[in-house]
């Protein structure tokens, strides 16, 4: 449970580690797990005590670099540097030696010795073109130290090399490169929405308003056609009234008047 939770929920992992310690404090693996859980929650004094206990039980120097980093966490970079010079470092495998170099460089930076930190990281492992599990972290630390020392062009080069080796995205090298180049990424949702990132719906409202306007225009057209029909009917009624003779109470039939109108129109066309 400690291994499962330590990356995402370190406090919960620490709680499980404390229970494990009560149940099996004489098991080296339990002491090591408790040390890493305390380390993840920045309880460096407690972590260092657990790592020392695990080292006594196993006789292994595997935890030496993380023990030195606990000294850094406790504000004692000089002790971390002293541990970097101990014989135990020579017993570490390649990964452990690289980790010890990273801790020593960090201790140099803690003391404000940026150039010394850069020199500490310069090693065959850094210059190697082969990609190992530690390559991305080593290159990143070197690039970060160069940038802190004001050597921006070199830092950019090494952040680029870090990105080439960082296949799992363990570092933020791409963001650091963008920062150096002055590139800013804008969230599209924020750009086109409000400050909270909500999508702007005014466009839909405007579209609805346009549709309503079109419907209103259609209604106006229908009203115009109706008005035109009423005018035509009124004119026709006037034509009928012109043929009505009030004195004789007689009127000329509508069909005849219409025919007469057609004849007059024909005559005008010929003229």
TrEMBL record:
Q: Give the start-end ranges of region Disordered.
A: 190-271
- Xref: InterPro entries: TPR-like_helical_dom_sf (IPR011990)
- List the Gene3D superfamilies hit by this protein, alphabetically: Tetratricopeptide repeat domain (1.25.40.10)
Residue ranges with Acidic residues bias:
196-228, 242-253
Q: Which SUPFAM superfamilies match?
A: TPR-like
Residue stretches in coiled coil: none
Stated name of the protein: Tetratricopeptide repeat protein
| Source organism of the structure | Streptomyces subrutilus
Could you read off the lineage of the organism from its UniProt record?
Answer: Bacteria, Bacillati, Actinomycetota, Actinomycetes, Kitasatosporales
